[in-house]
Write a structure and sequence with these properties.
44% of the residues lie in helices and 23% in strands. By secondary structure, the protein is of the alpha/beta class. A six-stranded mixed beta sheet has the order 1-2-3-4-5-6, with helices on both faces. The longest helix has 21 residues.
Length: 172
């Protein structure tokens, strides 16, 4: 599979898991289309909304290593040895997580989606060997709220999820 096919399969998997999660609360999500962006136009109990999916990797080097190793159209790039050490993993990832979320708030294409469809849902996959989405949803909540307080309300809800389990934890 090439990188785009892998990304589409990943997004479909996350959307399917989020539909199951919502169903556990009695909500019905129907996918209307996948225009890119956003990753999906949906209805929740008949009400229109949309979903954007992103991932927060522990480091850019880890992201590159993982994504190049699974695709047929990229040469594998293992994480260099000198990038495998971390002094303060919690602080390092805190900044990365905040940056990934802010990037979605600042992205022009997502701003246009918000103008067209109203507020949507952001799903952030956590790829971090040192913590879980559940722990981060609690520990990073205030920092994320502070970081976005001056932003528009393009995301009515933000969830973190562990990419290996797809268990969602609401942050906002």
């Amino acid at each position: 599979m090439n990188r785009n096919e892998i990304m589409n399969a990943h997004e479909d998997s996350v959307i399917y898991s989020f539909k199951r999660y919502a169903a556990s609360f009695g909500d019905v999500i129907d996918v209307i289309s996948k225009p890119e962006p956003p990753d999906a136009i949906i209805t929740i109990n008949g009400n229109p909304s949309w979903i954007e999916i992103t991932d927060a990797f522990f480091s850019p080097e880890l992201a590159e290593s993982i994504t190049t190793n699974v695709s047929d159209d990229k040469l594998p790039r293992p994480t260099p040895k000198e990038k495998r050490f971390c002094i303060d993993p919690e602080e390092q990832f805190s900044s990365i997580l905040e940056g990934v979320i802010i990037k979605k708030y600042d992205k022009d294409s997502i701003r246009n989606v918000y103008k067209q469809y109203g507020s949507g849902i952001l799903l952030v996959g956590i790829i971090n060997p040192f913590s879980s989405a559940k722990d981060l949803a609690t520990s990073e909540k205030n920092k994320i709220e502070e970081a976005i307080k001056s932003k528009d309300s393009r995301f009515s809800k933000v969830y973190l999820y562990d990419v290996h389990e797809h268990i969602f934890h609401r942050v906002l």
